[in-house]
Amino acid sequence: xxxxxxxxxxxxxxxxxxxxxxxxxxxxxxxxxxxxxxxxxxxxxxxxxxxxxxxxxxxxxxxxxxxxxxxxxxxxxxxxxxxxxxxxxxxxxxxxxxxxxxxxxxxxxxxxxxxxxxxxxxxxxxxxxxxxxxxxxxxxxxxxxxxxxxxxxxxxxxxxxxxxxxxxxxxxxxxxxxxxxxxxxxxxxxxxxxxxxxxxxxxxxxxxxxxxxxxxxxxxxxxxxxxxxxxxxxxxxxxxxxxxxxxxxxxxxxxxxxxxxxxxxxxxxxxxxxxxxxxxxxxxxxxxxxxxxxxxxxxxxxxxxxxxxxxxxxxxxxxxxxxxxxxxxxxxxxxxxxxxxxxxxxxxxxxxxxxxxxxxxxxxxxxxxxxxxxxxxxxxxxxxxxxxxxx
Length: 391
Fold this sequence. Notes:
Elements: H1 36-43, E1 52-61, E2 70-71, E3 79-88, E4 93-99, H2 112-120, E5 131-134, H3 141-149, E6 153-157, H4 171-175, E7 182-187, E8 192-198, E9 202-207, E10 216-222, E11 227-233, H5 235-243, H6 246-256, H7 268-290, H8 296-323, H9 325-328, H10 342-345, E12 353-361, E13 368-373, E14 378-379, H11 385-390
Parallel strand pairs: 1-5, 5-6
Antiparallel strand pairs: 1-3, 2-3, 3-4, 6-9, 7-8, 8-9, 10-11, 12-13, 13-14
């Protein structure tokens, strides 16, 4: 499945074809089941290791008929299933949850956006170590106040009717002023700050941790002067722009090499998307741990070859073991090393040094030893172990 993301053949059957002009020699059909809850557990097995987190929606392409299929105007993928996602600023996915529309059980009295935020943040053990960013679908004054009570630091763009007691200059009036003009208000009770800034359009941000100062410089194109000019920008706006795109980065990683195997069942796009998410996560984690900047293409290629070759080895091992039952059950005594089938001795699978209760001659150097190879069932001195399996 992962291979189809970057290695394209005209038909799916070609991947399993035995014809010389179509055969992919490494392919063996396998099936497995991935569950969303299991993936979520694996994604956070090392904890929430990023400081800046972002919450947003991700669309899984689907064009069939299903009650949970959504349509979002302006998205790269307009039709499909919607997933709520919690990611790091660089696109590592920590938690995700599918949205089922009206069929989803809701918490009474809590807006959908607030409910999604609290559900995704359940896996965060130390709220004070992180900053959370989300867009105006989720943000409201009441959400910021509740997150503040729970110890979460949050920032998000907000719609004009959700700023609560924070009184700001209207969008219409601020939009008539020059770029870089801003207004702000601070609500002392819950320590929530609202900032409205005139950019290419007027944007409003609500935060329970951000600050206006220090003001930073942003470059914008001036139509009247016909050149790029510097305008002032509140620090909280810059902080939001820098850290909000994590879900989009993860989604882009999936879209670049999306699995091409198609299925007729409604759940297939969700399953294949889950596999792609796991691969993108492993790629980002690999680069993080090793301090590398390996491209996703190179990483996927290495991953596919490793998995397929491992599968081929396991199948060969099963075949060899079945043919060697009589050998492994026989007391080999002291025959020459050539009496053991070379395929078993050199397959580099499952050869372990174990301690025996008796002492015999080493098959390689003839010195006395109490150690043996678990798979070959021959006595070997530890110093001779590698040499015996390489000859």
